[in-house]
Design a protein that fits this description.
It is a single chain. A hairpin with a 7-residue loop joins strand 8 and strand 9. It contains 16 helices and 17 strands. The chain is an alpha/beta fold and about 575 residues long. Helix 13 runs antiparallel to helix 15 and helix 14 runs antiparallel to helix 15. The protein starts with a strand and ends with a strand. The chain is flat, with a radius of gyration of 38 Å. The strands form six sheets. The protein has a four-stranded parallel β-sheet, sandwiched between helices. A four-stranded mixed β-sheet has the order 11-15-16-17. Strands 12-13-14 form a three-stranded antiparallel β-sheet.
Length: about 575
């Protein structure tokens, strides 16, 4: 009888069932003992039994349909398929072609009797249940290891190498591979400098830098994914997607994104700084916002800056020809479209905005603000100031007075210790008075820290005023000589957004300022012989505003401010 054998090993069962070689040897022995003629060997190495689209199984089914085999030898039913329904499908198909299936782990199962059929079906159900248990244990195990900070994915990002778990190295983790890490730093630096993704690809290809897959050319999509990868700032995420049934009839499952709160962060060595990563991301955002496609040079000075004051969404540019043949340009709210707004009841009620009138109005106000920087500073104080500005001399005098009181408290504490050591006061009395002195000193130290913070903020405000005046002086000399394209670039540099509600126009600015000088270090005060050390308050980190409504502020590594 012409016989063929089928063997399969999946990665999750390889340790339990052995290798492909051991299966083939066992099946060949049974074929020889049965006196069959071996006409074909069909093997699926590393293929999951949960799928039917396996190369070896497809070839076996084709051979059975062509009449090339009369008997198929297999180790057990779960080698054909893990799912019971798939087992029944394959066995019925082979039986329809007149092919007998023999399982070496279950002698006599190929006999045509009800008990053999029942036993085969039971084995199929058990195999499917076992597969579900293995998958659930594997999933829970990976989640536990990921929450413990271990890298559970087998593939490492470009610039890293995965170090597997071992007794010597501990948990599986990523290590920086410096030759590729240097390429990553170069890519992010070029992108932050404004170089396009396609130009970066061309430069890498010209320099002969191989891609992450080893190919001689870099692709646009490969580089775009690399620029969005948070692993380079020390954050690898697991559990980002989940498998759901696919609505398409030809697909079983598809991957969808989970909520970001469900992602599991895993620490890894960083290659670049957060500032460089964010700067590279802002370039893509700016390119999307300021795309010159379908834009007329010199027109739409506020393109990408105008927002509807009612809806809070951006506006589109639109031009139309009037009755006399002249063209009129408008900014119109995107929610004018009922589909975009989510229904006719949510459609924006605002009318279109004349682009030429708004451009002229906003530019005139910007020029007035630039030529009179006192207006900017006055607006800053009106927005952010809640208490009168303290005088620097008064702050200095108050700090000196507090220093004297703190020194007096330290002296009093030392005297109490001397009195106790001389036997003039008892221990309970010394402890009571020492507690009062310590409480008074703590209160004085707290007041001094608050005043020192106020003095630091005052110095920063003074520096800010000087920087605003310097910026206005630079712009004032050239603002009247700019053409339309240069005006557009200036407005994009200075304006956060322009919100229009009816006839009311709100302009929110961000001012490109020079970086402030670094604060000089403060020498620490010496430690007293018995009293505690009195250190000056450390400089506070620069506050990060979350809105331009917070006043004149810095907007990150570019050292911008906004009002």
């Amino acid at each position: 009888m012409r016989a063929a054998l089928y063997a399969r090993v999946s990665t999750e069962r390889q340790a339990d069932r052995g290798t492909i070689g051991s299966q083939l040897a066992l099946l060949r022995e049974h074929i020889t003992a049965a006196g069959d003629e071996l006409v074909g060997e069909y093997v699926d190495d590393g293929q999951s039994g949960a799928r039917l689209d396996r190369p070896g199984l497809d070839a076996l089914r084709d051979a059975a349909e062509a009449g090339l085999v009369e008997r198929v030898w297999c180790l057990s039913p779960d080698r054909l398929a893990r799912a019971y329904a798939y087992q029944v499908l394959v066995l019925d198909e082979l039986d329809r072609f007149g092919v007998v299936v023999a399982f070496t782990d279950s002698p006599g199962l190929a006999a045509d009797d009800p008990q053999a059929t029942l036993l085969t079906q039971v084995q199929g159900v058990i195999a499917e249940y076992e597969k579900a248990k293995i998958a659930e244990r594997y999933r829970r195990g990976k989640l536990f290891r990921a929450r413990a900070g271990e890298i559970v994915t087998w593939k490492a990002s470009y610039g890293y190498r995965r170090i597997p778990r071992s007794a010597a190295t501990g948990q599986a983790h990523h290590e920086v591979y410096e030759p590729e890490a240097a390429v990553v730093r170069r890519i992010f630096t070029d992108r932050a400098a404004g170089i396009t993704v396609r130009e970066i690809c061309r430069l890498l290809n010209a320099d002969g830098v191989p891609s992450p897959t080893g190919k001689p050319t870099w692709g646009h999509s490969t580089l775009s994914r690399l620029l969005r990868n948070e692993a380079y700032v020390g954050r690898v995420y697991y559990n980002r997607t989940e498998s759901v049934p696919d609505r398409r009839p030809t697909r079983r499952n598809r991957q969808v994104w989970r909520d970001r709160d469900d992602w599991i962060p895993i620490d890894c060595p960083r290659i670049i700084s957060d500032e460089l990563f964010q700067a590279a991301g802002r370039v893509a955002t700016d390119n999307t916002k300021w795309s010159p496609r379908r834009a007329e040079p010199g027109q739409w000075l506020l393109k990408g800056l105008v927002k509807c004051g009612v809806c809070g969404v951006g506006t589109n540019c639109h031009k139309m020809r009037g009755r006399n043949g002249t063209w009129h340009r408008y900014y119109y709210c995107r929610n004018h479209d009922p589909l975009r707004a989510g229904g006719e009841q949510h459609r924006c009620p605002e009318r279109n905005i004349r682009a030429d009138a708004l451009d002229t109005f906003v530019f005139d106000h910007i020029r007035a603000a630039i030529t009179h920087p006192e207006q900017l500073l006055a607006g800053e104080q009106a927005v952010t100031l809640h208490t009168p500005i303290p005088d620097d001399e008064l702050l200095t005098a108050e700090l000196a007075r507090l220093d004297r009181k703190i020194d007096a408290a330290d002296t009093e504490r030392r005297r109490l210790i001397d009195l106790y050591q001389g036997g003039f006061i008892e221990l309970p009395e010394m402890q009571r008075r020492a507690t009062e002195v310590a409480s008074r000193r703590k209160e004085l130290q707290h007041k001094r820290t608050s005043l020192a913070d106020e003095r630091t903020a005052l110095a920063r405000d003074n520096q800010l005023r000087h920087r605003v005046h310097d910026f206005a002086a630079r712009i004032h000399t050239v603002i009247d000589t700019l053409d339309d394209t240069q005006k557009q670039q200036l407005l994009r540099l200075l304006i956060e957004d322009v919100r229009v509600t009816g006839w009311h126009v709100q302009i929110r600015l961000r001012i490109a300022l020079d970086p402030p000088p670094s604060d000089p270090p403060h020498p620490p005060r010496p430690t007293g012989p018995t009293g505690p050390t009195r250190q000056p308050s450390p400089p506070r980190p620069r506050p990060v505003s979350v809105s331009t409504q917070d006043g004149l502020r810095s907007v990150g590594v570019d050292d911008h401010g906004a009002v």
